[in-house]
Amino acid sequence: MPSVKLLAIESSCDETSASILVDGKILSNIVYTQTIHEQYGGVVPESASRLHIRHILPVIEEAFKQSGVSKNELTAIAYTQSPGLIGSLLVGSSFAKSFAQALHIPTIAVNHMQAHVLANLINEKKPNFPFLCLTVSGGHTQIVKCTAPLEMEILGETIDDAAGEAFDKAAKMLGLPYPGGPLVDKYAKLGNPKAFTFAKPNIPDFNFSFSGVKTSILYFLQKEKANNPAFIEENLNDLCASIQHTIISILMKKLNEAAKQTGIRDICIAGGVSANSGLRNAIEEYGKKYRWNYYIPDFQYCTDNAGMIAITGYYKFLAGEFSDNFETASARSHF
Ligand code: KG4
Ligand code: ZN
């Protein structure tokens, strides 16, 4: 079979990213992170779309340069179709479709959440099927059962906030800039995870809830600040460590229940929050204790990146799952 050479584009939120894959191997993964949103405490969709327009071409050019592959060698272009901010998605998908039409090659539409899970197939050491994946990002929190690269079933998910959102909102209450997750992680390393306790929800099945945790942190901080206005500054490390510990124990409890009930021992994590050092340590600890084969993507493949779109695009290419714009384009060429 001739070589499969893919360009993949990710632009669902505030990262503009491009990757080149050849026969299942990622040769480049360029990520431009928009920092303008820090000052607004969250992603501003209009600014995100405009920044994607500005950065998409240089990011793609750099991906080609680092891989040594040229545009005329490409066999297909994969892009993030959904979920995401519509203006941001449109920049990546429109670019992918136009470029593909010009090169007379097909496009492959990729689901962003499926791609987070399949980031675990990038490494040499891959999980065996079926595996469970705890997918934790800024917009989603899911336990997914994956029986084949493109066959996934959501066993449970959040009924309100996502885990990344819980990190970011708690960070905001502590006066930290957006996105606060990585900063909570940084300060948590210096604090005591048992210093403070926060409410943990009791949700049935494999579903999650983080809104009660958020409220519990808010009321606690309001009470403490009334007694001591410098409470947060004086206890920042312990607060971050305790908040992180609470979120991670909620995640790990459900993941462990899912592993027990399904009998599946190959366990993965994915999504932006899988970059969290506490969660990475917890997976290792549980893995040793319950004899899981555990897998953690490299840092660059945890937060939004085109490498995960490329690996998903690769499996879709092998399965012949192209998006219909190519059929439309080739059908038109007969007239
Ligand atoms: O997967 P991702 O890059 O984007 C979405 O698809 O949402 O995830 C972003 C989320 C943000 O909420 C961010 O705060 C969180 O992942 N995050 C972290 C860490 N790195 C990123 N949360 C905790 N600890 C980290 N080290
Ligand atoms: Zn994501």
Please characterize this protein's 3D structure.
With 335 residues, the chain is α/β, with parallel strands linked by helices. The chain has helices at residues 45-67, 86-103, 112-118, 163-173, 181-188, 211-227, 231-262, 277-290, 306-318, 324-332, and strands at 5-10, 15-22, 25-33, 76-82, 107-111, 131-136, 141-148, 151-157, 266-270, 293-295. It has 2 domains: 5-118 and 301-325, ATPase, nucleotide binding domain (Nucleotidyltransferase, domain 5), CATH 3.30.420; 127-296, Nucleotidyltransferase, domain 5. The chain contains 10 helices and 10 strands. The strands form 2 sheets. Strands 3-2-1-4-5 form a 5-stranded mixed β-sheet, sandwiched between helices. Strands 8-7-6-9-10 form a 5-stranded mixed β-sheet, sandwiched between helices. Helix 1 packs parallel to helix 2 (86-103), helix 4 runs parallel beside helix 6 (211-227) and helix 7 runs parallel beside helix 8. The longest helix is centred in the last third of the chain and has 32 residues, at 231-262. The chain binds 5'-O-[(R)-(carboxyoxy)(hydroxy)phosphoryl]adenosine and zinc ion (ZN). Residues 112, 116, 137, 271-272, 304 line the site of zinc ion.
- The helicity comes to 40-55%
Helices, by number, come to 10
Question: Which percent band covers the strand fraction?
Answer: 15-25%
**How many β strands by DSSP?**
10
| Main beta sheet | 5 strands, mixed
Bound molecules: 5'-O-[(R)-(carboxyoxy)(hydroxy)phosphoryl]adenosine, zinc ion
Q: Domain count, please report it.
A: 2
Q: Radius of gyration, Cα only, in angstroms?
A: 21 Å
Q: What is the CATH C level class of the largest domain, in words?
A: Alpha Beta
What's the rounded overall pLDDT mean?
94
In CATH, the topology of the largest domain is named Nucleotidyltransferase, domain 5
List the strand order in the largest sheet.
3-2-1-4-5
| Oligomeric state | single chain
**What low-confidence regions span 5 or more consecutive residues with pLDDT below 50?**
326-335
CATH homologous superfamily label of the largest domain: ATPase, nucleotide binding domain
Shape: globular
